[in-house]
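Journal club side-thread
Mid-discussion, someone asked how the predicted structure for our own chain would compare to the paper's figures. Pasting it here so we can look after the session.
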Amino acid sequence: MTFRVAAAVASLLLAQSFADSSIHVKRFEAVYRGARTLQAAFLERYSENGRIVRTEAGVAYFRRPGKMRWEYESPEKNLFLVDGKSAWFYVPADHTVTRVPAKQSTDWRTPLALLAGEMKLSRICARVELARAERPEKDGDVVLSCLLKGSESKTGQAAGNDAVHAKSDLVILEVNQDTNELVRILVRSSGGVDLEFKFKDWQFDPAVPDSFFRFAVPPGVAIVNGELPASNGGVNP
């Protein structure tokens, strides 16, 4: 097979992969786009060089537009909340809360706010295709690979202001073949660090008050502005 023929075949296969993935992406996006509020149980695992070093679990809530609440229940209680403007991380045992402008947050949970926004993978993915080499958790599930915007540069540096792209090159999404609901997200870093989220028991438009997505600083808890000058911090009276 000549180089030109091989290149043509590869181009056709790639085009077919894009076409096939487009169908699944549209179905996946459609499932979440109609809901104002979402709720799901989650399991989060952090791995280094294939070894799991931390596992956490809890319940996550998403509210349009772009708000989230992650309630961690084990192994210890903490809270990660995005109110649309700021990202808050609260550890009750430490009596401190870290506040970061949402647009500056490098935490990988922040982009997941798209579940309660326009719900377009194109907001964070430069390209989405079927990840045929990835084995799904459940036979028959659809596995998609998302090349993050900014990851295509030769230097490997992120484009624009979204610093999360500098940390990760590829995101794997697993979608249930029957319901088109999100089952798993795997953030694969070039440094051998993987961050995995598993979701189950999705609820659409549960009865959740707006106050759930606002952080009320408890009395005596110190506010630490993570990526702002230290002088902007304070303690709630």
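Post-session note: Helices lie at 3-33.
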